[in-house]
């Protein structure tokens, strides 16, 4: 499980799939968060990229992120974190 730490070192991005075992839909997020990172990098660094170049379309990305935030919130609440 991740310790909650972070770094601005680009190597830290390799840890994107290190999710707690008890988070709902872990395997879905583990696979798809890397794809979102790749899409973000495309948008950051390719001035010629268009929406059609994204690996996940915008509507699906929005749904994925909404679900991830919901599952993350529930995970934290289950661990006793006051939000």
From TrEMBL:
What is the protein's given name?
Answer: Uncharacterized protein
- In its UniProt entry, the species of origin is given as Pseudomonas fluorescens
């Amino acid at each position: 499980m991740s310790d909650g730490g972070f770094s601005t070192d680009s190597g830290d991005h390799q840890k994107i799939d290190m999710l707690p075992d008890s988070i709902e839909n872990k395997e879905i997020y583990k696979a798809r968060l890397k794809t979102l990172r790749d899409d973000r990098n495309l948008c950051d660094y390719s001035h010629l990229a268009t929406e059609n170049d994204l690996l996940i379309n915008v509507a699906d990305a929005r749904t994925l992120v909404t679900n991830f935030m919901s599952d993350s919130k529930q995970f934290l609440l289950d661990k006793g974190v006051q939000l």
